[in-house]
Amino acid sequence: MKKYVFFCSNPVNGGTAKVFKELTTYIMEHEEEITVVPCINEKNTVLAYKDIKTLKRLPVYSEEEFLGELKNERHTVKRVIRRMLRNIRYYKIKTQNIKVMRDFLKYESPYGIMVHNGGYVGDDLCNQLLKAAHMEGINRVISVFHNDFRKNWIRKQLLFFYDRNINRWTHEIVTVSEYTKNRILDNSYISKNIQVIHNGIKELRGPEEESSRIKLSENICNVLMIGNFLDNKGNMYYLKAARNLARGGIADAHYSIIGNIYDKCYYEECAEFIIHEKIGENISVYHDIYNAAEYIHLFDFLVVPSLYDESFGLICLEAMASGKPVVAFACGGVPEVITDKRNGLLVPVGDENALTAAMLWMIEHRIEREEMGAKCKEDFMSRFSIASMSRKYIDLMLKE
Predict the structure, then answer these.
(1) What is the DSSP-derived secondary structure letter of residue 47?
(2) Phi, psi dihedral angles at 218 (to 5 degrees)
(3) Looking at the DSSP assignment, which residues form a beta bridge with residue 5?
(4) Within 13 Å, how many C-alpha atoms sit on residue 9's CB side?
(5) 196 φ, ψ to 5°?
(6) Mean per-residue pLDDT for 136-146?
(7) Quick check: 211 pLDDT over 70?
(8) What does the mean pLDDT of the chain come to?
(9) Residue 203 gets which letter from DSSP?
(10) What is the percentage of the chain residues whose pLDDT exceeds 90?
(11) What is d(CA 322, CA 295) in angstroms, rounded to the nearest whole number?
(12) What was the pLDDT predicted at 206?
């Protein structure tokens, strides 16, 4: 029996938190050779973590929790000075965090740890635990990068020491797609072999009570986008495609968005677009629904117009688990999930006309759409189930 500490401090109700929860729960319920001690930071409010049994909350605090969010500063010198001052102020807390983590590892005496980091560099508490584990001589340290970010040559040089530490502190590095793996290798000094383990989720069921807020129209095609209002999620492209279809006389479709307001200015831009283009009757927007994937089965297909930073496209997987085809920009790791003309349609990133045409095809070809939906379910069960993903992580943890 090997004991592993699992840790995640991602502060967003998104893919990293979901995969952490699903993997942790599956191993705790199905694997007899591994004991899991799941941990998060004390003040983390992500809803997905609350369902994890025996979850421990460590009294460690991120920079944002201690100092608040760092405001954007256009002036380079001021930005650098502000960053330096924050680092100085946070240093004492960071040192205390590492001490707490080391004491916790001494108490639990795990064989290994697995850290689920929201992205390359990502959540600093994850990096602090990696350092603590290295200092305690933990036998096996696995770091999972769920994303990466675009960076120029200068930024790469500034992260040289971080990359060196990752090479020292970890025994295995995992990421969720070939796309993310290649981007990390091309834009960092990480020298370890990176293993790709595609995300997996359990089969989705509808919510115990269907939300009375979700309004579906009968005898027409109901189209859905799930995406918080952020520029990279492409909400505006979805709205423009809906506008184009409405102007083109496509009356037998209704377009919904389930997404929370993360960027207020961007949301207001989208709201003004709906009013200005007079498509309010064609669009429904829902906020504060944190189990959005459970509603996919009510719709006819899903649209994923992400423009960048889509390391894997977990929402595509959730559509496949619901037996619903996807129309998506071929962004990041999405083409590793969606096979064009088999379980969905892929179009060039940022091509509004191509997105409109693909959505129109889905609306007008009901039989073919339903056939794609069946292939979605088939591909999900064979490639992206929670059991398939978990088995790969288990093999990695048991590896000598």
Answers:
(1) G
(2) -80, 150
(3) 37, 113
(4) 25
(5) -95, 125
(6) 97
(7) no
(8) 93
(9) P
(10) 77
(11) 9
(12) 66
Residues 36/116, Cβ–Cβ less than 8 Å: no
Q: Are 232 and 259 in contact (CB under 8 A)?
A: no
Question: How is residue 395 written in tokens?
Answer: 């093999």
Report which secondary-structure segment, H or E, holds 147: none
145 Cβ contact list (under 8 Å, min separation 6): 117, 119, 120, 122, 173, 174, 175, 176, 180, 184
Strands 344-347 and 194-196: unpaired
Both tokens of 271, joined, read 């709201």
How far is residue 227's CA from residue 211's CA, in Å, rounded to a whole number?
18
Strand extents, DSSP E, the chain:
2-8, 34-41, 56-58, 112-117, 140-145, 172-175, 194-196, 221-226, 253-258, 283-286, 301-304, 326-329, 344-347
Q: Which residue has the tokens 């993360």?
A: 262
Q: Tokens 């999405």 belong to which residue?
A: 334
Q: What's the DSSP call for residue 330?
A: -
CA distances to 223, 272, 292, 348, 359 from 356, rounded to whole Å, are: 12, 20, 23, 12, 5
Least confident of 105-114, 140-149, 198-207: 198-207
Helices (H), strands (E): how many in the chain? 13, 13
Question: pLDDT value at position 114?
Answer: 98
Torsion from C-alpha of 202, 203, 208, 211, nearest 10 degrees: 100
Segment among 7-16, 206-215, 319-328 with least mean pLDDT:
206-215
- At 22-75, the pLDDT tens digits run 999 999 999 999 999 999 999 999 988 998 999 999 999 999 888 887 766 566
In whole angstroms, give the CA distance from residue 33 to residue 36: 10
Query: Using CA atoms, how far apart are residues 82 and 86, in angstroms rounded to an integer?
Result: 6
Tokens 């831009």 sit at which residue? 269
- For 240, the token pair is 């423009």
pLDDT in the model for residue 217? 80
Q: What are phi and psi of 31, to 5 degrees?
A: -110, 120
Q: How far apart are CA 289 and CA 294, in angstroms?
A: 10
Please give the DSSP secondary-structure letter assigned to residue 294.
G
* 31 Cβ neighbours under 8 A, 6+ residues apart: 390, 394
Helix 124-136 with 160-169: angle, nearest 10 deg: 50
User: The pTM is what?
Assistant: 0.87
Q: d(Cα 210, Cα 212) in Å, to the nearest integer? A: 6
DSSP, res 190? -
